[in-house]
Amino acid sequence: MPTPSALHENLLRVFGVVKLLAGLILFVAVSWEVIRGDHAAFSSSFLFVQFVVCMIFLCDFFLRLTVADRGTHFVWRNLPFLLLSIPYLTLIHWSGVELPRGLGMFFGLIPLLRAFLALVIVVGWLVSRNVQRLLAAYIITVVVFTYISALIFYDYEALVNPDLHGFGNALWWAWMNVTTVGASIFPVTAVGKIFSVLLPVMGMMFFPIFTTYILHEYASAERRDSDV
Length: 228
Fold this sequence. Notes:
- The protein is an all-alpha fold and 228 residues long.
- The protein is 80% helix and 0% strand.
- The protein is built from nine helices and no strands.
- It has helices at 4-36, 44-67, 71-77, 79-85, 88-95, 101-126, 130-157, 167-178, 190-227.
- α1 runs antiparallel to α2 (44-67).
- The radius of gyration is 21 Å and the shape is flat.
- The termini are far apart.
């Protein structure tokens, strides 16, 4: 018969998988809402999906709290995860407060940050070597941040930027900026201008790390060849 500690461990592993799947579902839901939405109000289906995903995150947090040796230390150490798991957008909707779409988009992306952090952690588990872990986590960071930037840019600029024609243009704009090449689409909103600065900064941080990884692998191969 399984012991209580073994049952807790099994439950934590199950919640780990469920949490990752919930994060991916939320990622798809946010993408669908931005690309197919009306850029004026959130659909009831999106609010429901976000609420369910946040409940899964909260259940995972409190389940881990019950098995933590020091509860207070656990809460303080994982407080950012707790704050990112609260369904702010749904609670605001239930309160009857009408938020501008831009501010609502900010609250809608908060749980997505929680899912993104979980995804980076999973990548860290999947790779064994330190250099590979760093590279994999950083590539995912750049790819996901670029995609989210395209979503935000499209949501804020779609109704006011005459040069933006569809989400494909927004995605192209984001990748051109993260590669520091630049695009012919110029932002007209404050949020768009902020991301037009953040994306090249992210790109300039990424390429030196990628170059360092290639040089490290090349040097390791050279040493292996010389030892033969």
